[in-house]
Specification:
Blueprint (H helix, E strand, L loop, with lengths): L1 E6 L20 H21 L4 E6 L16 E4 L19 E7 L19 E6 L2 E2 L2 H11 L4 E7 L3 H7 L4 E10 L2 E4 L2 H20 L12 E7 L2 H7 L6 E2 L4 E6 L3 H24 L1
Parallel strand pairs: 1-2, 1-4, 2-3, 4-7, 7-8
Antiparallel strand pairs: 5-6, 5-10, 8-9, 10-12, 11-12
Length: about 280
Amino acid sequence: MRILVSMDLEGMPGISSVAQLAPKRALYEDARRIMTKIASFVGNVLKDLGVDEVVIADAHGYMVNVIYDELPPGITLVSGFPRPLSMVAPIDKYRFDGAIFLGYHNAVGTPYAIFDHTYSGRVFRSVKINGYEVAEYEVNTYILGEFDVPVILVSGDSTLRDRVGRLTPWAVFISFKESLSRYSAVSKPLNKILDELKRGIEESINRLRNGDVKVVKIKKPIELELTFSESSFADLASLVPGAKRISGVTVKYRLSKAIDIWKVLDLTLFASLGLDYINQALR
């Protein structure tokens, strides 16, 4: 059995300040230690349950947050950015039996949700798929479905619980913290979180082995609607073949595969950030 573990940072326990989210920021090393400790713990639990291969996909920011030489023996690490399929790489290279999401957060615009954003708060004001506002959780679940991989456990911000219950009700949900605002949350004691996580992983693996989980297949054709924070970003996004400009800041795409969602998101994200960098340099 091979399990993919996709790890984001904003939904991790103890993370509530932008000072923790990126290299060179004052509290970033503290965040790395928390993320690595949880990665190591989950890897050990999965190994103890008889999982043959555990693949950790570092999926936050530059995707080089997990401290490689502190992982337990036998744990594979995927790091670096950009990369194909982003947060769920290398789902296209190997056959996985299930996926676990750790440290996930809610969608852009969600009230009282810690660090609410979808892919980039700087670039995207809204991301909708087939008319429904989505978080990174849904995007990655749809991509995994393209490769017949079920999501078996999701953990992170408590506000994600309802989303998980709607799309993947068979998946175990573990709350790492309760959001008070965009920049504040109540984190449970780490020892309690690890105990809950261990029990949750045991239950999710049992459900997987018993055939009590499902693969999510997105309805096609897929309508992806992106609303940008600036009209200049939409100018660039409308250059993608097949794009339809809806308003000054909104562009729609009609897609045939779930992996095309990632392609459009990454392409428009990088183009927008590149333009933003140029504009900043000229000021």
